[in-house]
């Protein structure tokens, strides 16, 4: 049985373990408890995504373990980074029910940070595995790509916690791509996020807010039922922005700096089942100062794709312009005298005394010649006399 190497860490402790695709979450929790002495009923296990090490995913059931294994295999990585995090009291019931396989609906009233209550709907009935095929109306024989299947269960219930608002937005995008629908913002600020399905008659809606003024966001209400049919198929998706494409492929660019745009399009098609236009798949290397469009290498000035990458790093574009365009290099080029090139294969030029300069050949132009010459700039053509003072 094929296995991947993993490292589980908690505070200043860590140990190494091997994880197979058929491993169950309960056995992993048992090994963690034995080695680190951690009560997994009060903590939760997460792993870092191989394509974005700043993003963490929660392991809630055996299907998530299979999804984690297949995701790392699909990305070509052989190391799994596991971390243990404490679970808040209000999320312990959800965590325990997911571990035991109980799919009963959650309590319909969930306390928010202001002490009120939020009405919630029953959580979506997740598939038996995160990799169970999800039919998007293309027939029972259609196979959904691995990462699309993996994203289907990322948004599942009230009380789900995300380490940041950016992570929640990225998961919403992946979830919408996997389910084949689009969403729109109703509220979007630093403390709350409310979205609904782009189809007005569809009841799907999600509301999340910040936890105790920190960066973490928690889902407070969720209606996870669709009546719109989810008819955005694999030819394209409106949520596949350039930022999303960058987050998807930046992990592969580290391992393969010569990653071409055609390879990006092919991999995204294979992994997510969607087609993206060519103008969204440019690979920019800020260290080597190259872009797959070739413009940066040609003129030594960052192209628009490089400017977008530089701006995402909050850096100045002028730092990446070649030194050939600086005034220091220009002055250094003309610092010394430039001597004329000698002409050994030509005779010596004649001396001025030997040259007879003839007047230019003139020819009478047709029509009557002008009697008034063309005045020079600033020359007065006509003198105007004042009728009162009789002065010019």
From TrEMBL:
Limits of the SWIM-type domain: 282-314
Bias (Polar residues) ranges: 107-122
GO molecular function: zinc ion binding
Superkingdom field: Eukaryota
Pfam families: DBD_Tnp_Mut (PF03108), SWIM (PF04434)
Organism per entry: Colocasia esculenta
The protein's name: SWIM-type domain-containing protein
PANTHER family: OS10G0104700 PROTEIN, POLYPROTEIN, PUTATIVE-RELATED
Mitochondrion is among the record's keywords: no
């Amino acid at each position: 049985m094929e296995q991947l190497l993993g490292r589980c860490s908690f505070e200043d402790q860590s140990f190494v373990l091997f994880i197979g695709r058929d491993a169950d979450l309960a056995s992993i929790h048992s090994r963690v408890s034995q080695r680190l002495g951690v009560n997994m009923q009060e903590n939760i296990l997460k792993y870092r995504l191989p394509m974005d090490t700043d993003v963490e995913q929660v392991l809630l059931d055996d299907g998530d373990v299979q999804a984690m294994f297949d995701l790392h295999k699909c990305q070509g990585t052989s190391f799994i980074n596991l971390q243990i995090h404490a679970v808040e009291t209000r999320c312990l019931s959800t965590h325990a029910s997911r571990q035991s396989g109980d799919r009963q609906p959650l309590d319909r009233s969930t306390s928010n940070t202001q002490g009120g209550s939020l009405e919630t709907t029953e959580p979506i009935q997740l598939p038996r595995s995160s990799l169970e095929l999800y039919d998007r109306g293309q027939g029972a024989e259609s196979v959904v790509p691995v990462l699309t299947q993996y994203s289907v269960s990322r948004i599942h219930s009230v009380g789900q916690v995300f380490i940041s608002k950016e992570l929640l937005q990225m998961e919403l995008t992946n979830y919408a791509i996997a389910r084949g629908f689009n969403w729109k913002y109703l509220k979007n600020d630093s403390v709350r996020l409310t979205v609904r399905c782009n189809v007005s008659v569809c009841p799907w809606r999600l509301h999340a807010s910040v936890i105790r003024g920190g960066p973490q966001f928690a889902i407070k209400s969720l209606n996870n039922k669709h009546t719109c049919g989810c008819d955005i198929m694999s030819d394209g998706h409106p949520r596949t922005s350039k930022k999303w494409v960058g987050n998807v492929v930046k992990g592969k660019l580290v391992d393969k700096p010569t990653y071409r745009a055609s390879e990006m399009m092919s991999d995204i098609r294979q992994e997510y089942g969607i087609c993206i236009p060519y103008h969204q798949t440019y690979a920019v290397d800020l260290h080597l100062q190259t872009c797959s469009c070739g413009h940066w290498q040609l003129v030594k000035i960052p192209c628009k794709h490089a400017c977008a990458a530089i701006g995402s790093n909050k850096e100045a574009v002028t730092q990446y312009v070649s030194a050939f365009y600086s005034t220091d290099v220009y002055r250094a080029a003309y610092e010394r005298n430039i001597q004329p090139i000698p002409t050994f294969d030509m005779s010596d030029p004649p001396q001025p005394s030997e040259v007879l300069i003839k007047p230019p050949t003139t020819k009478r132009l047709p029509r009557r010649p002008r009697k008034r010459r063309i005045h020079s700039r600033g020359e007065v053509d006509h003198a105007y006399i004042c009728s009162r003072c009789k002065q010019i």
